[in-house]
User: Fold this.
Amino acid sequence: MKKAMVFAIFATAALAVSAAPTGRPTTTRKGPVGADGGEAVAKGRAAQVVISQEARLGNACLQNAPSLPGGGMGQVFKKPRKWIVLEMKYDTYAQWQDQLTVTWHVMLDITKATEKKEKLAPGQKPPAQYSYYTTSVTYINIPQGSHAASVCLPPSVLERYGEPVVIAATITNKEGDVLAMQNQGAAQLKLGESWWENDKVLSAVNKQGDPLIERRQGMVDRSKTIFALVNPNDYEVVQ
Assistant:
């Protein structure tokens, strides 16, 4: 019953915004475009960027950090702690792409937190059910072939705020053209297309008037984590 009510709130917000004009001009050309974003090369196989494997939801994206024993450093945590590691694989067909940017939009559900429910002080409000994270990673000098893109969230986020229930990601070129997109889990929450641009959805409240979603920081490219040491050749240089 509670989940149904949450879905209804999101669905109402999505419909309200889709029906109202935003007043903002649309400058991004969507669909397959050329390696340089030009209309003259907007067709053909070389224009494509294809997502061959989407980032996975739930516990399928949880990983233990690779261990580097030795060095004389003591171990604080004795039990394994899992990271949220989101990885997308994509194929490019142009001989070279100067630049590609992957922008991630991730929603965590606190009901799927791996630690016990947080104890609150008297009068303290509980955290919002959903936590929203976003970041962009720009890769340069991308040769034709298969590649991977990945972002990570540390164990404390998983333990406190839960597993990913929605993962969206867009791949754009240097002109801002959208070349490929994944939007996994959004349909289950009735968020709609491009939900991360929908202020009504992101500001939705429950029947008590408390926010359903809280924006948080801390999601980073894998190159800034210990996972940078794993299969480094799968990833292009981050700008």
Residues 7 and 189 are 5 Å apart (CA to CA). The chain has one domain: 2-21+31-66+79-238.
